[in-house]
Amino acid sequence: MRDTRILMGMPVTVDIGGASSGVLVDTVFDYFEQIDQRFSTYRSDSEISAINRGDLPVSDWSGEMMEVVALAARTKNETDGYFDIRKPDGSLDPSGIVKGWAIRNAAGIVQRAGIGDFFIEAGGDIQSRGRNASGFDWSVGIRNPFKADEVIKIVYPRGHGVATSGTYARGQHIYNPLGVGGPITEIVSLTVIGSDVFEADRFATAAFAMGRDGILFLEQTPGLEGYVVDSNHRATPTSGFGAFCQP
Fold first, then answer.
1. Side-chain-side CA neighbours of residue 155 (13 Å)
2. Are strands 140-144 and 10-16 parallel, antiparallel or unpaired?
3. Cβ(85)–Cβ(72) under 8 Å?
4. Helix, strand and coil in the chain, % to nearest 5
5. What is the predicted pLDDT for the residue at 180?
6. How many angstroms separate the CA atoms of 121 and 137, rounded?
7. What superfamily would CATH give domain 2-129+137-245?
8. How far apart are alpha carbons 132 and 186 in whole angstroms?
């Protein structure tokens, strides 16, 4: 069963095989709704909004919030500060890490139900396992950031996670958190393949903030591969990226 719904302000697709997949699909979507209720910075009734208003002391934060903040701190350390959920005004915006974390957790829900073939995507970040309904490996198309209806590369994750950061869909919204140079303009799309979607997502955000140096960071980080498209329409992959382009 395959279904797409708008949650967390983006299309979320869940594709699960099996006779009882309909109930499981609903369970996964219910989980994403709970995540939105807790972490959305656009909802005045969310936990993160209460925190940013100063209405919720740290002692009252949920376990999920504490986990995400701890993972964000670890990612900040591992990327030399290029990933930071604390904004210049002091507020917290965990959106750069929550999506991949939530997709990974949703995949865990499916796997614990005994399902080995599934595909979960939220806003272009993907976790899949096994094979699709046709019996083939799941494939993921990387969009041309200059022509939305064109796919410029197809990858076969084979259980790995895929995440893409870019400015072509939402405009200039990614900044260097170290406060040097303002918004990132020299690259327009960066796709990362990691051991799972959480690893891919958190490092995609950080690597994009590094600008042209992001692809070098991915090259030098074990377990990560990447594919960047710059503002001159030039694509550059890491040395191991090609292995994921073979069917």
1. 26
2. unpaired
3. yes
4. 35, 25, 35
5. 58
6. 16
7. ApbE-like domains (3.10.520.10)
8. 36
Q: Rounded to whole angstroms, what are the CA distances from 70 to 13, 63, 67, 84, 203?
A: 28, 11, 5, 11, 15
Q: Which residues of the chain have pLDDT under 70?
A: 19, 167-182
Report the pLDDT value the prediction gives residue 174, as an integer from 0 to 100. 55
190 vs 166: CA distance, rounded Å: 6
Over the stretch 198-232, which tens digit does the pLDDT of each residue have? Answer: 999 999 999 999 999 999 999 999 999 999 999 99
E-strand spans in 42-136? 118-122, 125-129
pTM of the full structure: 0.93
What stretches of 97-213 adopt beta strand conformation (E)? 118-122, 125-129, 140-144, 147-155, 161-166, 187-194
One-letter identity of residue 241: F
The secondary structure of residue 20, as a DSSP letter, is T
Closest by CA position to 10, among listed 50, 54, 40: 40
